[in-house]
Amino acid sequence: MSKPKKKKKQQSGWTITGMIRITHWLPGWFIRSLSRMTAYANFLLDWRTTKVMRKNFQMCYPDLDEAAINVKLKNSIRHNSCLTKEFATAWLGGRSQIANMFDQVEGSALIDNILDEKKPLIMAVPHIGNWEFFWHWLQFNYRIIGMYQPAKYYGVEKLVLDARQRFGGQVFPTDTKGIMNLFRALKQGKIMMILPDQVPRMGAGIYSPLFGHQAYTMTLLHKMLNKTGAEMLFGCCLRNSNQSGFNVHIEAPSFEIRNRNVEDFNADMNRQLESIINRWPNQYQWTYKRFKRQPEGNDPYSFK
């Protein structure tokens, strides 16, 4: 990378981290209101983010008419507008500030039972509610590990990495050495958190059905379960009804996770992800281009 480009990226990183710090300092009501106004402007002007959300709703809920999709869009915007302040708090907040945001926990006995049996555990946490807060809840209560992909800007990467390891968690890069360290840490009895609905790099996934469409889905989770003998649970951290705090939800897989081919495993995993999303559709990250990689090479998010 040339020196001017490197300097520009450093300056952009400082700007972004500065904005995150200001967001953390400003009152929550102000940031949420500002985020909501920006999101609604995006909706009214039908900018790219709204187009992505609309396309996702059209693909996942083909029976809905335009009016019903607009209702879903507005509900999703209301929840997405919370993320800006929430991420700033997750990355810069203190332990007591974050711990006080958890209201209820459902299903933690499932984790404790697995750990009592001295088995490794993988928590599959989709992009619903706030996954950064779920990571913190795990940090506060268990020995946990996870993966990270290097951020585009150094300052942002350092901020996020520091946050994810501040309360005892440990993260590894998604390279060969990092994956080996993950396997080793899992076998030592630590809990691994993974985002199962993330689009993997080419060669690291297969096409599996999700809401009736082909979605490029990771094979790493299936591989780790079978090579380490780990158990698996699903989890999410959901905003409560008045959006003043979070409820942690944990559930067991509704399918057999062991001794199966990856095609059947991924199909069943995506089916359970559908169930989770359908229970709390307003809190899913519909702005994510989940179907961007298609078998035919077309991109459903190529808007004119």
From TrEMBL:
Domain of life: Bacteria
Residues annotated as signal peptide: none
GO molecular function, one term: acyltransferase activity
Segments crossing the lipid bilayer: none
Statement: the UniProt record of this protein carries the keyword Acetylation: no
Keywords: Acyltransferase, Cell inner membrane, Cell membrane, Membrane, Transferase
Subcellular location: Cell inner membrane
Classification via Pfam families: Lip_A_acyltrans (PF03279)
Source organism of this protein record: Aliikangiella marina
Coiled-coil spans in chain: none
Annotated protein name in UniProt: Lipid A biosynthesis acyltransferase
InterPro entries linked to this entry: LipA_acyltrans
Any Gene Ontology biological process: glycolipid biosynthetic process
GO cellular component: plasma membrane
